[in-house]
């Protein structure tokens, strides 16, 4: 398709276009291979949005994470045409949610139909309000059906058809073989740490599941793909970590290992299962359930290639730019606050969104692609055109400053990341408002050890010897919970408010864990109460209930909110 000619009017005057693209291409020529003008940025670690905005039900982080989920799903093929961006529009009056999708090329019918089926499941679950496991199974089926070609590409399995633009390199070998090779190379202190944490055995088990997909019959593929995704998820969420990348980093792995393509692919594979958890929770929890009863999908039509004065090649309109322009034309009282993306934002998109000032992002890989543009828009009024011209001038000013730099940043980062549910807390940004995680470690005795993860500390990983054992995740709407504990039980996670409670039951031969709401427990003298926010509990705390050698009762709360009564009964020999 021939580039569309552009008249010399509107945002891009001939001089502005010539100046901007000349400077952008000069900067591109100064950059060596694997260099970028700035270092990659993870904006989730330095979120500028804080506090509760009463206009919205979703928090900023929930909105951003949800947008990232749908953009991830929309990227159904290993093609630049499928690179996608998403916003989540919230309407409290109806109430409703709109998922607005923009891709480099207008999404094809099968993508729209697949995403619509996923929204249908969420809508039906929100309306019925029951049978969570049934709906989660249906949702997982819909996700796998939409994403199977992309998953085969991530696995580099025998079912994958290599696109012409993907060169035959070491990265095109099956993922399970590359993981096995990495495991053989894991020696010394790091290799011992992996084995002690049970991670080595768990990764070996994952390779078995990935190999089964590669060699499995076509009729078995849906089931085998689900098993492979679930095993990947188990690796990503192993112990108390939220990603394999973070786990390896904590074990002392170098950046070359923790951020290798193999590690990041495992986290991305796990994301297909994680997003099912998140979406089912969204459609079930009381605050957001009404929104999901009226959830819908809207598609932006992409722009054709555009020839710009000063640019030697035709330019493209990225999904992030399409969405910004949509809201310029269609303002909202509750404007989306975040743009999710299937790939991290490029340098020019990052700079554009920063100068525009109304949206946030998860991440920017900061690589410079000069074939980038903002289209001419006939509906813009004078104020909008002048504002966008000032925006482009401001971008150009930063590019000119970067041209004066003598050195630039090495950048080997992959262009897409598996964004985890919670913003990582690091010491320099942690505060009393951080979300703590409480680890409850239950042993084969009437002794219970609690380790509280205060806002400025990191929870120590719990060594796990058997990667085959199971774990469960519960939310506030699942209360009361009664869970039988046996040799096959490893972890039980309860997400209440802004606190994660992780119950480690691996060493328990036989018992039962009961958790229930306990509002009347505030102020009781006969039950030990633990505040998850108490900074003095950043240590090991042992609890023993002398009244009964086979039962222990205590309460946990978040500054007197969301109080829970926890009862554990040992039913086997102790």
UniProtKB/TrEMBL annotation:
<protein>
    <submittedName>
        <fullName>Uncharacterized protein</fullName>
    </submittedName>
</protein>
<dbReference type="InterPro" id="IPR027796">
    <property type="entry name" value="OTT_1508_deam-like"/>
</dbReference>
<dbReference type="Pfam" id="PF14441">
    <property type="entry name" value="OTT_1508_deam"/>
</dbReference>
């Amino acid at each position: 398709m021939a580039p569309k000619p552009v008249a010399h009017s509107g945002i891009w005057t001939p001089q502005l276009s010539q100046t901007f693209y000349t400077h952008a291409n000069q900067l591109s020529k100064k950059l060596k291979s694997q260099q970028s003008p700035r270092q990659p940025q993870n904006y989730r670690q330095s979120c500028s949005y804080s506090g509760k905005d009463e206009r919205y039900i979703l928090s900023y982080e929930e909105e951003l994470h949800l947008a990232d989920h749908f953009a991830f799903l929309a990227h159904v093929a290993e093609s630049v045409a499928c690179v996608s961006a998403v916003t989540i529009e919230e309407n409290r009056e109806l109430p409703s949610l709109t998922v607005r999708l923009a891709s480099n090329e207008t999404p094809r019918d099968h993508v729209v139909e697949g995403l619509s089926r996923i929204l249908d499941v969420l809508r039906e679950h929100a309306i019925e309000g029951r049978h969570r496991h049934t709906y989660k199974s249906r949702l997982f089926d819909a996700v796998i059906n939409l994403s199977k070609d992309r998953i085969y590409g991530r696995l580099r399995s025998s079912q994958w058809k290599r696109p012409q633009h993907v060169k035959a390199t070491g990265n095109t070998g099956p993922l399970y073989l590359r993981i096995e090779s990495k495991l053989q190379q894991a020696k010394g202190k790091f290799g011992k740490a992996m084995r002690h944490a049970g991670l080595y055995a768990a990764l070996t088990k994952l390779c078995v599941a990935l190999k089964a997909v590669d060699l499995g019959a076509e009729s078995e593929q849906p089931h085998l793909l689900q098993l492979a995704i679930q095993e990947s998820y188990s690796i990503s969420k192993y112990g108390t970590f939220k990603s394999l990348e973070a786990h390896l980093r904590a074990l002392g792995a170098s950046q070359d290992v923790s951020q290798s393509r193999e590690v990041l692919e495992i986290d991305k594979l796990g994301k297909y299962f994680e997003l099912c958890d998140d979406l089912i929770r969204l459609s079930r929890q009381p605050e957001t359930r009404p929104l999901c009863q009226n959830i819908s999908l809207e598609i932006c039509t992409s722009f054709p290639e555009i020839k710009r004065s000063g640019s030697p090649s035709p330019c493209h309109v990225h999904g992030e730019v399409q969405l910004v322009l949509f809201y310029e034309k269609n303002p909202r009282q509750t404007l989306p606050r975040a743009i999710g993306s299937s790939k991290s934002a490029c340098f020019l998109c990052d700079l554009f969104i920063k100068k525009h000032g109304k949206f946030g992002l998860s991440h920017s890989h900061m690589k410079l692609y000069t074939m980038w543009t903002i289209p001419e828009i006939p509906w813009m009024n004078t104020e909008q055109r002048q504002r966008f011209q000032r925006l482009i001038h401001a971008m150009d000013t930063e590019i000119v400053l970067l041209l004066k730099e003598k050195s630039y940043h090495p950048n080997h980062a992959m262009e897409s990341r598996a964004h985890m549910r919670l913003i990582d807390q690091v010491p320099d940004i942690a505060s009393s408002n951080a979300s703590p995680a409480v680890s409850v470690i239950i042993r084969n005795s009437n002794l219970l050890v609690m380790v509280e993860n205060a806002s400025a500390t990191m929870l120590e990983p719990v060594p796990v010897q058997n990667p085959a054992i199971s774990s469960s995740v519960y939310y506030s709407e699942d209360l009361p919970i009664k869970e039988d504990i046996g040799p096959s039980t490893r972890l039980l996670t309860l997400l209440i408010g802004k606190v994660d409670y992780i119950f480690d039951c691996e060493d328990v031969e036989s018992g039962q864990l009961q958790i229930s709401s306990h509002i009347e427990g505030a102020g009781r003298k006969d039950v030990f109460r633990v505040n998850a926010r108490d900074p003095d509990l950043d240590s090991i705390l042992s609890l023993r209930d002398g009244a009964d050698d086979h039962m222990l009762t205590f309460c946990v709360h978040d500054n007197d909110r969301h109080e829970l009564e926890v009862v554990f009964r040992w039913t086997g020999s102790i």
